[in-house]
Specification:
The chain has about 425 residues and is α+β, with helices and mostly antiparallel strands. The chain is built from eight helices and 24 strands. The two termini are about 20 Å apart.
């Protein structure tokens, strides 16, 4: 049996205090690391108890709810077990970091928390600073303390490794379904235009679709799928005053099935983590139906975008696409809600599954990201600092010693 290493808590001094101890703390830490006889825990933690940790099943969990034995995704995209959890009181400076992508989320950590990143000086080659000059083959990747990051540096998001065994069916007590093209189309359009009436418990399910000539094809397709796949007969009603077609059906079992997978209404929509292990083909067909229903193609701008009022749906769409190496931007909009956007070849990869729209997008060479294996690096747009007093959180992960927090790759307590 392997002997466990001695654990040492190493609280380094706040850099604003000039006693001289901080001058030597880094050298002392390096000596302890190189001895390889100790596990060192520094006070490097996350301030927000609701910071979201990426779990192995595709779900997100608040860092304050992480427990020993939970399985999280590491920076290598692998599933790793949580060994210990920590909550401690902190009084000092914290740093908040925002990136080019995931603009609706940011990370706030203690100043010495290591984040996987590439310094700006190491991200470019040939002395240029345009996207075409990015070093996309062998830039220097390193764990960098939050206090040492600058605007323009690149921080990582880790895409989980694809599961070998994709799920091909889903069920609950009322319904069973194969993950086929029809279900992908139906769920995508539900995410875009569907809802379940709140005045009934899992009651009426509605699809409200614009009554243009093109959209008639969509609503007829939805009607066909409901009948052939789920044996649900429906009628199409036109509401001329609102310029919409409506499919409305009270089928409690089916409504519960859809609610479980995709939520209730516009602000509550999400994509169940059940689909985390679905095939890339199914995911892209489902999301192409969503973008076809709720999105807009701007070929002159070489982009495809959609808007949603659900923060959870915005995050789910972005994470699912990133899992399959498709870059999707997300930002808050002034009118409320979130805008999801795809550019160039990434838009084309989703739009190729459109049933009724013809869209063409050109490759983008200006994208400011670096893709290396399962890691995607986006540049830092904003950094702010403040003094903080309160609880902070962290935990230890086996082997890889890292996890994904609010879509940043961070090191855990022990290094």
């Amino acid at each position: 049996m392997n002997k466990r290493k001695l654990r040492i808590l190493f609280p380094t001094e706040f850099t604003g205090i000039n006693t001289g101890f901080s001058t030597y703390s880094k050298e002392l830490l390096q000596e302890l690391y190189s001895a390889n006889n100790y596990e060192l825990a520094e006070l490097a933690c996350v301030t927000d108890p609701h910071a979201q940790i990426a779990m192995s099943d595709g779900s997100l969990r608040y860092i304050s709810n992480i427990k020993v034995g939970d399985i999280v995704i590491s920076h290598k995209g692998e599933n790793k077990k949580v060994i210990n959890t920590y909550k401690t009181l902190y009084d000092g400076q914290v740093i908040k970091i925002s990136r080019h992508i995931f603009k609706h989320t940011s990370l706030e950590v203690t100043e010495n928390h290591p984040i996987l990143a590439i310094k700006k000086k190491n991200a470019y080659q040939n002395k240029g600073h345009s996207p075409n000059c990015l070093n996309r083959t062998n830039p220097k990747i390193e764990w960098i303390q939050a206090k040492d990051l600058s605007i323009g540096d690149f921080v990582a998001y880790a895409s989980p490794l694809s599961n070998k065994n994709n799920i091909n069916e889903i069920y609950n007590q009322d319904f069973y379904s194969k993950l086929d093209d029809d279900l992908a189309f139906l769920l995508g359009w539900y995410l875009a235009e569907g809802c379940i009436a709140k005045n009934k418990v899992y009651g009426y399910i509605n699809f409200d679709i614009c009554s243009s000539l093109k959209e008639q094809e969509h609503i007829l397709e939805i009607q066909r799928i409901l009948l052939e796949k789920f044996n649900i007969e429906t009628n199409i009603q036109e509401r001329p005053e609102e310029s919409v077609y409506e499919i409305r059906k009270c089928e409690r079992g089916f409504s519960k099935f859809i609610y479980t997978l995709c939520g209730l209404d516009s602000r509550d929509k999400y994509i169940s983590n059940i689909f985390w292990n679905a095939s890339k083909d199914f995911i892209l067909k489902m999301l192409s139906a969503y973008f076809e229903g709720d999105g807009c193609s701007e070929e002159d701008q070489n982009r495809l975008y959609a808007k949603t009022s659900s923060s959870r749906l915005a995050l789910d769409v972005t994470r699912l696409l990133l899992k399959h190496n498709i870059m999707c931007g997300c930002k808050r909009i002034r009118a409320g809600g979130y805008e999801l956007s795809l550019h160039g070849e990434h838009a084309r990869e989703v739009a190729q599954y459109f049933k009724y729209k013809n869209s063409s997008f050109k490759d983008v060479s200006r994208s400011e990201y670096i893709k290396l294996d399962n890691l995607i690096f986006y540049h830092v747009e904003q950094i702010s600092k403040k003094n903080y007093q309160g609880d902070v959180y962290n935990f230890t992960v086996e082997d890889d010693q890292s996890y994904i927090c609010d879509n940043f790759v961070v090191h855990n307590c022990y290094r």
